[in-house]
Amino acid sequence: MSRTIFCQYLQREAEGLDFQLYPGELGEKIFNNISKEAWAEWQKKQTMLINEKRLNLMDPQSREFLETEMKAFLFEGKDIKIEGYTPPAQ
């Protein structure tokens, strides 16, 4: 059974995540306020960031950087700037 939430990223009702994908309070906030669609968008951006900046997810600084970017993207409406990446023209 899917659950509907008001997605802070999309600013509309949308299908919520099936379970908490991120630990702690932030994970709870994501679970309650971010839709599957928005999370999928973040996953694409995160992959690009990891590749572009050659992040090592074993490194606490890399994880901290990604978490900061994730909060800015999902909750503050900030787009992630990927150097050397030009989004396809609409």
UniProtKB/TrEMBL annotation:
A GO cellular component entry from the record = cytosol
UniProt cross-references to Pfam families, sorted A to Z: Iron_traffic (PF04362)
Q: In the UniProt record, does the keyword Metal-binding occur?
A: no
Please provide, alphabetically and separated by semicolons, the GO molecular function terms listed in this UniProt record: iron ion binding
Q: What does this protein do?
A: Could be a mediator in iron transactions between iron acquisition and iron-requiring processes, such as synthesis and/or repair of Fe-S clusters in biosynthetic enzymes. Necessary to maintain high levels of aconitase under oxidative stress.
**Homology family:** Belongs to the Fe(2+)-trafficking protein family.
PANTHER family documented for this protein = FE(2+)-TRAFFICKING PROTEIN-RELATED
Q: What is this protein called?
A: Probable Fe(2+)-trafficking protein
* Organism annotation: Pseudidiomarina aestuarii
